[in-house]
Design brief:
There is one protein chain. The chain has one domain (about 10-50). The protein is flat and about 40 Å long. The chain has helices spanning about 15-25, 40-45; strands at about 30, 50. Strands 1-2 form a two-stranded parallel ribbon. The protein has about 50 residues and is mostly helical. Helix 1 crosses helix 2 (about 40-45).
Length: about 50
Amino acid sequence: PTSTSANAPIAHGGSIVGQVLARHGVRCLYNLCGGHISPILQGAKQHGLEIV
């Protein structure tokens, strides 16, 4: 059998979090910076969220 999911683009977890937050109307994130949260901050920025 062949899988069609092999052709699907791979989404980064941080991008998915940013997308979900934007869909729910979140416009701004308040955070403490650190390497562990960096992918989420990148995803949030990618989807137009302001980071404070």
